[in-house]
Records
---
Amino acid sequence: MSKNKNNFFEELKSKSETKLPEGFDERFWKKFDEQYTDKKSFLLIRRFQLWGLPLFAVFLFSIWFYQKPNEYHAINDTLNMQAELSDISEDDFEMALNLETLEAIDLDEDIYPSDIDEWKQLLGGV
Amino acid sequence: MQETKIKDFQDQYKSLKGPFMRYATALLKDSALAEEIVHEAFLSAYSKWDTFQQKSKRSTWLWSILRNACLQHFRRSEFKYESVSEDSLENTPSSDEGAEMKLIQMSKEAVVKEALGLLTPLQREVVELRMSGLSMEEMSEILNTPSSTVKSHLHRAKKHLIKTLQGETNE
């Protein structure tokens, strides 16, 4: 009975079959591409999200990783510079001492006058 | 993931585009408009593809989308869906199944199409869904109507068809 019922509708279908209008598929896929962007480019974007983003993350990590030794060098440079600065300070200190000595020498000018009369007086009126 | 979605969609499109066009043409009685509605339904389905909850078959879900698209068109165009009263068609006693099939086989395609065109929109709808191979449960889900009501519509539609075809073949 059930089989007969199905046959009834199958027979009905075969007698009223309608063909799809010409270009039905082309028109549909054109609309589809317009609405959901070009399928291929859409897939490319998805592929970039799947592969491109992790690769980009790895690239960023590698930059960070190689940046680390450079930072270490920078620290070393800073230490060296500090050492140099301290050396310079020491030099300055020496220079200051020298200046004091020079000043002292200047003060001794009275002991060793350059004027000839003064020399005479100093030598006991010769 | 995306490629699987497109492939699934293409498979459904291939198997349903024919039945969808038949159904929409039967309901809207305009091939160009039917094509537009079918395209619209498929595009809408694709946009909602991931929201499908797998409570029913994917094809049943797609049929519901198409039906809603047709009904939306009726609402927009203020078309009276139940324009033909079932009372205007007389009920005839059911005859033998084999004889009914012979009757259809004898009838010309144009006559069968004409007989289908004389059904009420709801009867036409259930007949088209049945011809597309849907089960009573699936039809019930798509039409959002109890299975018993669907059976009743189908039974009446069948009787009307047989009556019309008998009239045509006797002439």
Note: The interface with chain B takes residues 1, 4-5, 7-13, 15-18, 20-21, 24-25, 27-28, 31-32, 35-36, 39, 42-43, 46 of chain A (CB under 8 Å).
---
Amino acid sequence: MIDVRGLTFQYPSGPSFTFPDFSCASKEHVLVLGQSGKGKTTLLHLLAGMLRPTAGNILIQNTDITKLSNRELDKFRGREIGIIFQTAHFVDSINVIDNLMLSPFLSGKKTPLEDAMAVLERLSVAHKAKEKPASLSVGEQQRCAIARAVFHKPSLIFADEPTSALDDKNADQVIDMLEEQAQQTGATLIIVTHDKRLKDRFQKQITL
Amino acid sequence: MRLLKISWSNIKHKPLNTLLSIVLLAFGIGIISMMLLLKAQISEKFDRNIKDIDFVLAAKGSPLQSMLANIYHVDVPTGNIKVSEAKRIIKNPMVAEAIPLAYGDNYEKYRIVGTNEKYPNHYGCTVAEGNLFAAPFEVTIGSSVARETGLKLGSTFTSVHGYDNAAEDTDAHHHQLFTVVGIFARSNSVIDNLILTPVETTWMVHEHPEETATGDSTSVDSTHVEPEREMTAYLIKKRNKGAFGMLSKQTEDTTMQLANVAVENSRLMNNFGLGLSTITAIAVVIMVISFISIFISLFNSMRERRYELALMRTMGGTRATLFALIIQEGLLLVSIGYAVGLLLSRTGLLVLSKFMEESFHYGLDNLAITTQELALLGLTLFVGLLASVIPAWQALKIDISKTLTNA
């Protein structure tokens, strides 16, 4: 599913990172742990093709994404990867359901509206579908962000520090949600975090 | 979900910014479009009224005034001319046609013009109801006159001395009754706003005014001779080139003068055009400001939405999509501004037309989109494109990783 070899990244006039080689199988759930400044987010952005590595290869489903053109990479990302960022962000001018449907529109991967509604339903935010993102509570926003990342059934789901701002109860709930949605869609889940509370919940861990 | 919907939502999301841009642009476009319409319509209307009239033969004075008074009926005439003198000129073989005009009275500010059938025929005017005037004190009225005054076939009225002043004092009223015998079909020419009657009517109304006024029938002067017949003007069509110089020479020792319509009209249009140019220049400045406003608005909105744009990239949006999105927002803004501007110019023109109809009996009615306005649309879209290219270019260069990390 994912195979990372000899990956390094050098920020222009900034720190450089060398990442350990690793691979993970399809539908596996992986925790990437590391203290601040170890390049967790950098790794996630590299895996999602949002950054180009200085050296090394990233194979996702037998596609070396380091070899794709900009446009191919944008499209590949849109189809195969769902990303949940540390803080939920949306296109403010359109409502929640339109924000979700933006994803199939932009990636060109046909996904019916019903699928989006079904996921919102599963995450108990379906009643917010017609509202503007800014009117939602932070918790509701995060659920909607998760829904957006998973409803189009990507083969990979990335989450960047999804629990760092949450108390124990809510943190557990969010991880439950992520695992559940990943299972439902048969996606590989990679969570990047420094949150030690998550250590016991994942068998496969990569420490930076 | 279409890109247009996103653009539209983005525009609606910042209503005040959008309003400012659109209002500025609409005013610029509105004024320019109104100037274009005004210029086109007035010159069209003027041309229609000039229609092959080459010269105006009238009393000495300002030739421009002579044209304004006798062709457009918007100014007072320069005086009267003697028929006997005028005959020498209009009988000249260089004159193809001479239309007599004798006037001095009005009814509710509509001029009563003594003439013959050549005058309405010249403008291709047909009688819609009733007949053309035949006997003195019979009148055939223009369509606007009929509409505004409510005169109908068989209506009678008395005239007021003067050109377009409804004189308050009763002394200025004449006592003879005019009878409406016909109504002209609308011709979009000056005839629409005139009351036509035989030349004799005008002569009869103004003959011996002191006698009719005093009503003293016993003091008729036995030595009275047939008075010298007078005319206000003749509208002349020439037969061949060079007629102006020849005919003009003949008026040298008389009280008459020949106004060259082409020359006077171009002088009029130049003066008029200068006013329009000034207003248009102001409108251009407003438009430039509006484009700067649109540019700033798009640029700011792009900066504020960097995160959104980066987010759209992570969802599979390509650079080209984002570029198109921002360009589209710019074009949408200017298109709305353009549409509102055209609406404004039409409204303005209708108001102006109403005012002109009331003051000068001169309406403007053609509200169709002119080819110049289509060119204006092209220009608007082009400049809208320019205003959005830089923000769109900035959107292309967004570093999604950095933007999403720092958000």
Note: The radius of gyration of chain B is 31 Å.
---
Amino acid sequence: MIEVKDLTKTYGSFVAVKGISFRAESGQILGFLGPNGAGKTTTMRIITGFMPATSGTVVINGLDIFTNSLEARRLIGYLPENPPLYSDMRVEAYLNFVAKLRGVPRSEVESATQSVMEHCGLTHMATRICGQLSKGYRQRVGLAQALIHDPQVLILDEPTIGLDPRQIHEIRELIRGLAAKRTIVLSTHILPEVSQICDRVVIINDGTIALEAKLSELPEGSSLEEVFLHAISKEGHLPGATAEETLEEVGAGHSEA
Amino acid sequence: MRNTLTIAGKELMGYFVQPVAYVVLTVFLLLGGWFFFSLLQHFSEMLQMYQLMGGGQTVEQLNLNAQVIAPVLHDLSIVLVIVMPALTMRVFAEEKRTGTYELLLTAPIRTTEIVAGKFIAAAVFTLIMIALAWIFPLILIIFGNPEVGVMFAGYLALALLALTFVAVGLFTSSVTQNQIIAAISSFGILILLYVISWPEAGGDTIKAILKYLSIPEHFSTMVRGVIDTADIVFFLSAILLPLFLTQRAVESARWH
């Protein structure tokens, strides 16, 4: 379980995240949505202990990520926005390295690597050099390194980006299969993805939470897209804003980021 | 410890698949060979000249250590000033640029273990490089009769000097994500440590401090064959201080 409480992050005078709070329960997949530059990646970096919050707390299965950092980090598997691959290492050697780094016992490193390669469809790529992989395979290796120590908490920053439709389907199935005994937070731009695999959704806009809801509790008759656009259009206080105009805003966020 | 060795092992493998490391190694040994060749040539000419002049006593005073090995070591120390920043510039900067820094910092390992692992790997590679430069004394031992103890002290000095450069290089690499900036700033620091005792101005205290900070002061004492605890302490501090600063710099990602 992840508990985020009053999380604020400032970079100099720029406030990236403004006091957000939410919970992700075990056994659930939480979809983390928002336009680019909304603070998704910042939030995920704080949850994983990569950077500290300016104020507020993150508690992972009862362990504070800041004060109990080592123990809390042990529980987390993290796929950053860019898969963190060493371009001169072979896939298998890289996964072995991450397994050791993540504290997998020496005797189980080899089997952990083999099983995670099998899960992510990488077995035939074991001896390829990471730097020469296609975007889709880089993403798979990134996912494999996040799963290698069988973590209880998974933080995935846009896990299906750059994959082809078949791979997207496979990875979604994989993530869905992992959810049973884990807490998964997944950020994405792809709304249908959220509808397909997430149980709950948190929409973040401009560093604040615009909407937090169970997917099953969304207003009847409205699609997730409508809900999303409504949530990020300044809490719906844009009188007469058409869907097109709002979309333009989302697009503007894109080009800035 | 286990984590440190994991990082060190991975980093060390990295050096052997990277062209930069081989270029550094080659430049170091080729230039070393050139210095050795020319100094030895000079030495043998002098030897012949003195023998022709019949100065038996002067011939005995000619010394392979002082005339050949010591100057080679001094020259190699300058080569190290130039090549070591190139060897260490990527160590942290590259991780920051490619995003693997996120993998390292979110793994359940301590910052000290990361820094120690990276230092050990760079140090092992550097020591292999310096061990290969033993080829020059070996040639002298085979064909001549040099004092091995003095040469040993000289190579110890070169090793300590190189490890100091590694530590400084790691530090500059840890404060930027740009490898060029890392290399140039570490180059600047190393040059400064070479020339720091040049100014003649200032009181005796300042002069003494600058002299103490000067790398050649300590280096040349050891190359002459004098192993003084003070010099060893200087080099160990010069290795540990930048490593401590590196640890702080990496850790600072977790502060702000």
Note: Residues 34 and 204 of chain A are 5 Å apart (CA to CA).
